[in-house]
Design brief:
Layout (H helix, E strand, L loop, with lengths): L6 E4 L2 E4 L3 E2 L8 H11 L3 E3 L7 H11 L7 E6 L8 H13 L6 E4 L8 H13 L6 E4 L3 H10 L4 E7 L7 H9 L3 E5 L11 H10 L3 H11 L3 E2 L6 H8 L8 H8 L22
Helix pairs in contact: 1-2, 1-9, 2-3, 7-8
Length: 279
């Protein structure tokens, strides 16, 4: 299995294109899976304050034996901590839980209209200036809100982490982000398991000796999108990383793009003050 993971340069950092997501890996589940992921060759680990597993993720990193400077570690600030002061304090708590002196990428988890964006972005930049993170970014920001955040930030926004998979087109957001020098990171890249039964993805996979999930992850990284699949199954941790030894043709890429549909979004939790991009 190849371990030469491609990386996306964005803002101040190089982000490994395949990461291990830890959403819903709570009550101790994250630690052994993070250890396994790092043993296999993953070097990008994603967590968040609201996942309530930062301690377990940190324990997995410590137990793995992989040097800290070889790991790209992301966490996200929850919306309750978006004010100046509480944001910085929450990051300090995250670092204590993770048992690290900095993360590589710190994201705002969702746009939140209750706190002025200028205040939140200034606090996010303050965290970076203090060396508690190497890079900053956002998550679940539509392109219009992303543009507002970019205009307010001294430091570049390295990524916008959003739902993205074959059933949800994100062409407009990706184009806007890339034009501004911001990468896109896909959460729920396997549509929470829905891709496994898709006949188009099954057929493409059979042509390459790969699973529908592997086809989907390959489709993402061939676009220059970062993917952070999450799984509770050790065998899937291995499978999701084994996507570096094949390439989809232009026709196969187009066939996967064609799966997008108007009702493809899974996580429609955005505040009413904002609207999703429509392609």
């Amino acid at each position: 299995m190849s371990k030469l993971v491609p990386a996306i340069r964005s803002g101040d950092v190089l982000i490994p294109a395949i990461g291990f997501g830890t959403w819903q890996l709570d009550n101790g589940a994250a630690q052994p899976l993070v250890e396994q992921a790092l043993e296999i060759g993953y070097r990008h680990i994603d967590t968040a304050q609201i996942y309530r597993n930062e301690r377990d993720v940190g324990a997995g990193i410590a137990a793995s034996g992989v040097k800290r400077d070889e790991i790209f570690l992301t966490t996200k600030v929850w919306i309750d901590h978006f004010a100046d002061g509480p944001l910085q304090a929450s990051v300090e708590r995250s670092l204590e839980k993770l048992k690290v002196d900095h993360v590589d990428l710190l994201l705002l988890h969702w746009p939140k209209p209750d706190v002025p964006m200028a205040e939140t972005i200034a606090a996010l930049n303050d965290v970076k200036e203090r060396g508690l993170t190497r890079a900053i970014g956002v998550s679940n920001f539509p392109s219009a809100v992303l543009a507002q955040a970019q205009a307010l930030s001294k430091a570049p926004l390295a990524t916008d982490q959003v739902e993205y998979h074959p059933y949800l087109s994100q062409k407009a957001l990706i184009a806007a982000a890339h034009a501004a020098g911001t990468s896109i990171t896909a959460w729920s890249p396997l549509a929470q398991g829905k891709v496994a039964q898709d006949p188009v993805l099954i057929a493409i996979g059979e042509a390459h000796g790969k699973t529908p999930g592997q086809v989907t992850l390959r489709w993402l990284i061939q676009q220059g999108v970062i993917a952070i699949p999450r799984t509770k199954t050790p065998a899937r941790v291995v499978e999701n990383f084994d996507i570096l030894d094949f390439e989809l043709t232009d026709a196969e890429m187009a066939a996967v793009f064609a799966l997008a549909r108007p009702d493809g979004r899974i996580g429609d939790w955005i505040d009413a003050a904002f609207t999703w991009d429509v392609d």
